[in-house]
């Protein structure tokens, strides 16, 4: 079965003579149109409003334009690894949706398929389907999704408040969810991303969320350690181990006993350092330089790397065996330019932090300054944004930080971005502003000079919701 084949549309099945509010939404993904339609009609009798999607693109559009807490995937005998990959795109699109699979019994003979179902689905049923049992599962999945969304929202807020990780974009929500799962484990982690994206902040947050939170967090800059000193820095040394070693000294790993060692820029670790680290990961023991006695040390290893770590492995800069030992768990931190409107939230956070302790002359960002921040590509990511905002706050003559105070040239603001990206953001900002300043969809459309149908299409395309705006003329 190929999910991208078939009819590219969403069909809604609405029961007659009943109010919309009486039904809960469910999305049905594939297979044969007649089977899906028949299932949708049966579910409608149980109080479910079905959105039938015949391919992944339609499913993703549906999830973006509707709040749907439960999805059903129908899998036939041609279920494959390619199908799994496509399904994961849909599953990752809405983290608050619980999924139930309806599976051809022929699929159940594969260990890989069974593992996939148990990992990513709330429940599964084999064909032929018992509608009563399926409706019961849907009810439980719906309740679980609602509770999970509330819990996830509380966790994201706690992350913001405790660790200063600001941003509510979908890309960062996925990072937060992964942090919550990963923090419970003791396995090594690689946090990858561009310079300035906040990899160490995320590492500290994972440590702070883990059972090791009360123990030390020790950060080590791998590029700052000469090869001749790497064993002493990592594992310590005994008295007289080398010239100048006048006393015994513990290394970074022992200093972090019971806690976490954060190895920043692991790709810059020397070849000898890589061998030493690999041996420690294998044996969980260290031997101080100049000593013959090994001793166990309990630490968790978190490493950070640039976005091209696999290329460094392919080029031989990083040992392949070390990479696989470290890459048990991974978090990819998105660049700021890929985080929707997070840059504005982060800038407001830095201004608020700048204002702390100031009883008068508190600063705030002008609307044009915020637009300039959203337009700029931020090649230096959050670190560059922080420097820019702090500099503007210090140098601005009034209480309002202006576009000019930021010092972002217009050409630089749009550098590194395609014309399509620039146009899409401009349209998104215009639609969002019109909706915020209007009482109804009709008045927002009039303000933009487009029809209501066009406005709805733009809202769906850019995943814009307007819960406080009336959907009728006004």
UniProtKB/TrEMBL annotation:
GO terms for biological process: regulation of DNA-templated transcription. One of its GO terms (molecular function) is ATP binding. Pfam families: AAA_lid_14, HTH_8, Sigma54_activat, VpsR. PROSITE patterns: SIGMA54_INTERACT_1, SIGMA54_INTERACT_2, SIGMA54_INTERACT_4. Residues 165-394 form the Sigma-54 factor interaction domain. SMART domains: AAA. SUPFAM superfamilies: CheY-like (SSF52172), Homeodomain-like (SSF46689), P-loop containing nucleoside triphosphate hydrolases (SSF52540). InterPro entries: AAA+_ATPase, AAA_lid_NorR, CheY-like_superfamily, Homeodomain-like_sf, HTH_Fis, P-loop_NTPase, Sigma_54_int, Sigma_54_int_dom_ATP-bd_1. Keywords: ATP-binding, Nucleotide-binding, Transcription, Transcription regulation. The keyword Methyltransferase does not apply. The keyword ATP-binding applies. PANTHER family: TRANSCRIPTIONAL REGULATOR-RELATED, TRANSCRIPTIONAL REGULATORY PROTEIN. This is Sigma54 specific transcriptional regulator, Fis family.
């Amino acid at each position: 079965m190929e999910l991208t084949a078939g009819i590219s549309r969403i069909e809604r099945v609405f029961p007659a003579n009943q109010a919309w509010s009486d039904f809960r939404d469910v999305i049905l993904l594939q297979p044969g149109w007649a089977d899906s339609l028949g299932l949708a009609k049966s579910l409608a009798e149980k109080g479910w409003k079905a959105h039938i999607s015949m391919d992944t693109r339609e499913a993703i559009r549906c999830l973006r334009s509707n709040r749907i807490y439960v999805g059903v995937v129908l899998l036939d005998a041609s279920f494959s690894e390619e199908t799994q990959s496509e399904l994961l795109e849909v599953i990752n699109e809405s983290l608050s949706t619980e999924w139930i699979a309806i599976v051809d019994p022929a699929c159940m003979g594969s260990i890989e398929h069974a593992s996939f179902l148990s990992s990513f689905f709330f429940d599964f049923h084999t064909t032929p389907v018992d509608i009563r049992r399926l409706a019961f599962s849907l009810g439980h999945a719906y309740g679980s999704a609602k509770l999970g969304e509330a819990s996830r929202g509380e966790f994201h807020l706690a992350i913001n408040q405790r660790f200063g990780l600001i941003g509510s974009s979908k890309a960062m929500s996925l990072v937060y969810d992964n942090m919550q799962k990963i923090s419970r484990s003791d396995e090594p982690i690689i946090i990858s991303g561009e310079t300035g994206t906040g990899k160490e902040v995320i590492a500290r947050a994972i440590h702070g969320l883990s059972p090791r939170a009360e123990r030390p967090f020790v950060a080590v800059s791998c590029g700052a350690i000469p090869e001749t000193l790497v064993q002493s820095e990592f594992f310590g040394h005994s008295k007289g181990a080398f010239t100048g070693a006048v006393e015994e000294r513990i290394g970074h790993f022992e200093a972090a006993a019971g806690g976490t060692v954060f190895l920043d820029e692991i790709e810059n670790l020397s070849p000898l350092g890589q061998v030493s680290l690999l041996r420690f990961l294998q044996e969980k023991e260290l031997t101080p330089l100049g000593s013959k006695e090994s001793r166990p040390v309990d630490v968790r290893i978190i490493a950070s790397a640039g976005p091209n770590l696999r290329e460094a492995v392919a080029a031989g800069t990083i040992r392949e065996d070390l990479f696989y030992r470290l890459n048990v768990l991974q978090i990819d931190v998105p660049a700021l330019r890929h985080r929707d409107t997070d840059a504005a939230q982060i800038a407001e956070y830095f201004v608020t932090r700048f204002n702390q302790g100031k009883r008068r002359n508190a600063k705030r960002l002008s609307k044009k300054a915020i637009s300039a921040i959203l337009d700029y590509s931020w090649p230096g990511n959050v670190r560059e944004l922080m420097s820019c905002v702090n500099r503007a706050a210090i140098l601005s003559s009034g209480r309002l930080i202006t576009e000019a105070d930021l010092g972002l040239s217009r050409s630089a603001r749009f550098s590194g971005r395609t014309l399509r990206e620039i146009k899409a953001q401009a349209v998104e900002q215009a639609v969002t502003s019109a909706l915020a300043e209007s009482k109804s969809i009709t008045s927002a459309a009039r303000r933009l000079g487009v029809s209501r149908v066009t406005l709805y299409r733009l809202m769906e395309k850019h995943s814009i919701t307007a819960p406080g705006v009336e959907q009728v003329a006004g």
